[in-house]
Design goal:
The protein is built from seven helices and no strands. It is an all-alpha fold and 119 residues long. The longest helix is centred in the last third of the chain and has 19 residues, at 80-98. The model has no long low-confidence stretch (mean pLDDT 88).
Length: 119
C-alpha cells in the first residue's frame, strides 16, 4: 500500500481515485462486461476490438484481463454448467499466459469460447 501511495504521489500532489486506478492497472468491470456481452451475442469482431481497446487504453496485461474475466463470468446470465466450463477455460488460458504464450492470441481463443457458449 505504501508503494502504491508513493507511486501515486509521484504523479500528482493530490491523490485521487483515478490516479490510483491508473497506477494499479486494473480492468474496469464495466469494460470487461461489454467485451463479454459482445462475445456472448456472437459478435467476435466487436468483442476483440473492445478487448484490444481496453488493453491498450488502460495498459493492462493479459493476466489482468483474465482476472477480470474470471470475476465477470459469474455475473453472466447463462446456465451454471457453462459458467463452470468458461471458468475452467480462463484457468487454462491463464496457465498458457504464465508459460509465455502470446497474450492477445490466447485472449482471442478465450473470446471464441465465450462466443461458442453464447450460441
Amino acid at each position: 500500500m505504501i508503494n502504491l501511495l508513493q507511486a501515486t504521489a509521484s504523479i500528482s500532489v493530490k491523490i485521487t481515485e483515478d490516479i490510483v486506478k491508473t497506477i494499479v492497472s486494473s480492468a474496469k468491470p464495466a469494460d470487461i462486461r461489454v467485451v463479454l456481452d459482445y462475445a456472448m451475442a456472437g459478435d467476435f469482431l466487436k468483442a476483440r476490438e473492445k478487448l484490444l481497446n481496453v488493453m491498450l487504453h488502460d495498459g493492462l496485461s493479459g493476466q489482468d484481463i483474465i482476472k477480470a474475466i474470471q470475476k465477470e463470468v459469474w455475473n453472466l446470465k447463462i446456465e451454471p454448467d457453462k459458467k463452470v466450463k468458461l471458468t475452467a477455460r480462463t484457468g487454462e488460458i491463464e496457465f498458457r499466459l504464465v508459460e509465455g504464450s502470446d497474450e492477445f492470441i490466447q485472449l482471442e481463443a478465450l473470446l471464441a469460447s465465450f462466443v461458442e457458449a453464447g450460441m
